Amino acid sequence: MVRHHIKDIGLANKGKLRIEWAAQEMPVLKSIAERFRKEKPLKGIRVTACLHVTTETASLMETLKAGGAEIALCASNPLSTQDDVAASLVKNSGISVFAIKGEDTKTYYRHIKDSLSIKPQITMDDGADVVSTLHKEEKALLKYVIGGTEETTTGVIRLKAMAADGALQYPIIAVNDAYTKHLFDNRYGTGQSTVDGIIRATNRLIAGSVFVVAGYGWCGRGVAMRAKGHGARVIVTEIDPLKALEATMDGYEVMSIKEASRIGDIFVTATGNINVISKECFSVMKDGAIVCNTGHFNVEIDIESLKMLSKTKRIIRDYVEEYTLKNGRRIYVLGEGRLINLAAAEGHPSAVMDMSFANQALCAEYMVKNAKKLQKTVYSVPESIDKEIARLKLKAMGIKVDTLTAEQKKYLQSWEMGT
């Protein structure tokens, strides 16, 4: 059996069925896997993937393996692993996995290093922890790496900062920047799965609640949209005047986080920044306020300050920690401040991850073919890949679109014709 460190190999059969269920909604990735199986574009390529170990990720891993890759997979968040999926990948797919749901920070980074032991040529990241570890602690392995991909907004921000400082040692494609990724995964996937996680963790009614969304990027847009659909009074907090204006014209109330803290019932952070909900916010929240995060890292909620303000803490439900402040008010933190949609729920629906992971697979293929031509910086997904994925998705959905006539093409390419 391949190298692994997982919770229980006995969960493999359950995981296999769940992977099969998710794969039914991933026709684009299936079509790519069929081509990869014939063409083997990744033959002999070693891939270290640091992603949420979910049923959808399993389909991506199997697609890469179909293309000829050797894979080592670790989790990109300590609470995002689905242990039965990890077991199935090891037992049924022959893929090395180092991931256990609820692993501590030390184990999390040990698993990253375990996954790097294959001396990867391609890295596949979600949050840039593998890239960071390579550049800080495993520099000797950089000579093997030809390129990588990055899945999420937070990781892209980190990598662009590295590139700007001249620290990045190999080219990386920002999968998150693809239209077929962030317009759908971030908006519809995060929107549905975040609200799903909140409901599973709390069983609270969303309708009629004051629902505060911090950040109006594509993830924040999706959360606000779904909360509104559930009947909540949605408040958006922002630092960007353009996004604040957009949120206002989308029909939401916009105010400062401090002001919103006084009236909110449920708070969701979606900014990618630190201490968005701070000591000042906790000090004015009403009794029973629920706080959670859907940004990649557990830094958006200042939990250390909350601990200092509190006299007691207890786990009152799975993924729900009750902090009782010194004045008697209670604040509930979900999923330890980590990604609530993966801590308490199952992450994004497979239909949107189909496009996101199709980008990952095709960008890995692109990197193998073009790495020698690329600089040590962060690239957007090639437009041809983005459009091909959209075309394949529409085809799978049975949707037909128009094409330009010769006359229309000529008109768009000319400047002589007017009214």
TrEMBL record:
Q: How is this protein named in the record?
A: Adenosylhomocysteinase
What gene name does this entry carry? ahcY
Location of this chain's protein in the cell = Cytoplasm
Which pathway, metabolic or otherwise, does it act in?
Answer: Amino-acid biosynthesis; L-homocysteine biosynthesis; L-homocysteine from S-adenosyl-L-homocysteine: step 1/1
A single GO BP annotation from the record?
A: L-homocysteine biosynthetic process
Catalysed reactions listed for this entry: S-adenosyl-L-homocysteine + H2O = L-homocysteine + adenosine
Q: Is this entry keyworded Hydrolase?
A: yes
Q: Does the keyword Cell membrane apply?
A: no
Q: What is its EC number?
A: 3.13.2.1
